[in-house]
């Protein structure tokens, strides 16, 4: 049974008109197709929504789950999907209203309330965050404290100055190098080459360290992990030192799959390599994923500069704050599209 079919069959008997089941499946399938790969927006207007004006692929996703929610109003998973798409589009007011709507239907909805605290923190609204946290603690004090610690750690990471100095680390070390989308012909783009140059330097400085390359989106028959491994081997790194993680499609997948591999290949220290614009997000979710697996590894960040200067790389904007919190919520276990996509 497909994930969509499971979602539809999981609804309580009589909760929605079964005549709508086919339409709901079409909407969910359309939403996830456009989420992952986009498509012809005008075709979606004409064939799926018939008259609604849409401006981009995430408009399609949001509209699909909004209509699904209207057809099955008891399905809070559809409302969570709407909110997730609004977050992607930086529509924080709309997302906040959607989470409040979920709480109106289910006052015990911990995930929705935790997102209200996250939204306040994204905005730097200390009073709003405190009030949202009080409400969260009223639902589950222990879990609320776990989220408070997550948010505090995220802020600490965002406040740190980026590191560009190659470390030499004692003990058992695993270098985790995060991938970047390949060109259509399957070749590494400059951003990935920059990350690989830094990975090579730190691998040479730590000759007993294992090197994990992570990235699974294929282009022209090869994945990021394949290309990264070959590049490092061509530069003199022994293939025996390299682990390839080639299943992930995005940062969350990178981190979760890498963390699962680190359960088997435990390390005193993880040296995390990625671009400076990506590091704060990657490190935040990596530390959280390791903590969830009771792995005590220290995470040492090593940035590949992708800003004009190191001072520029140290600056963090509102959009980056939003994405860091979005992915932290996802890695914590709050699925963006419940049952379909973490």
UniProtKB/TrEMBL annotation:
InterPro entries linked to this entry: Cell_Envelope_Assoc, DUF218, Rossmann-like_a/b/a_fold, TPR-like_helical_dom_sf
Key word Nucleotidyltransferase present: no
Residue ranges crossing the lipid bilayer per the database entry: none
UniProt keyword Repressor, yes or no: no
DUF218 domain segment(s): 174-302
CDD domains membership: YdcF-like (cd06259)
Coiled coil regions in record: none
Keywords linked to the UniProt accession: Plasmid
Protein name: ElyC/SanA/YdcF family protein
Species assigned in the record: Ensifer adhaerens (Sinorhizobium morelense)
Lineage: Bacteria, Pseudomonadati, Pseudomonadota, Alphaproteobacteria, Hyphomicrobiales
């Amino acid at each position: 049974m497909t994930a969509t079919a499971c979602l539809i069959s999981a609804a309580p008997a009589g909760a929605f008109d079964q005549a709508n089941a086919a339409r709901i499946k079409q909407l969910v399938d359309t939403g996830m197709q456009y989420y992952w790969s986009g498509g012809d927006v005008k075709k979606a207007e004409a064939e799926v929504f018939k008259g609604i004006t849409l401006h981009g692929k995430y408009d399609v996703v949001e509209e699909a789950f909004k209509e699904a929610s209207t057809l099955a109003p008891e399905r809070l998973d559809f409302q969570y999907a709407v909110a997730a798409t609004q977050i992607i589009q930086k529509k924080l007011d709309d997302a906040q209203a959607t989470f409040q709507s979920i709480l109106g239907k289910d006052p015990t909805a911990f995930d929705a309330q935790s997102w209200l605290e996250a939204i306040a923190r994204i905005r730097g609204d200390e009073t709003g965050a405190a009030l949202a946290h009080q409400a969260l603690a009223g639902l589950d004090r222990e879990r609320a404290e776990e989220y408070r610690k997550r948010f505090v750690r995220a802020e600490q990471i965002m406040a740190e100055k980026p590191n560009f100095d190659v470390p030499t680390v004692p003990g058992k070390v695993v270098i985790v190098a995060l991938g970047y989308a390949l060109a259509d012909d399957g070749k590494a783009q400059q951003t990935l080459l920059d990350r690989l140059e830094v990975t090579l330097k730190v691998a040479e400085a730590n000759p007993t360290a294992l090197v994990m390359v992570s990235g699974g989106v294929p282009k022209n028959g090869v994945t990021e992990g394949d290309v990264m491994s070959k590049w490092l081997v061509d530069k003199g790194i022994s293939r025996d030192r390299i682990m390839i993680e080639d299943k992930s499609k995005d940062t969350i997948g990178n981190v979760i799959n890498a963390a699962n591999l680190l359960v088997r290949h435990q390390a005193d220290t993880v040296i995390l390599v990625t671009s400076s614009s990506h590091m704060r997000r990657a490190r935040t979710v990596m530390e959280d994923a390791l903590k969830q697996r009771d792995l005590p590894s220290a995470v040492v960040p090593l940035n590949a500069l992708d800003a004009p200067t190191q001072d520029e790389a140290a600056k963090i904007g509102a959009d980056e704050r939003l994405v860091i919190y979005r992915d932290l919520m996802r890695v914590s276990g709050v699925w963006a599209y419940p049952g379909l996509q973490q």
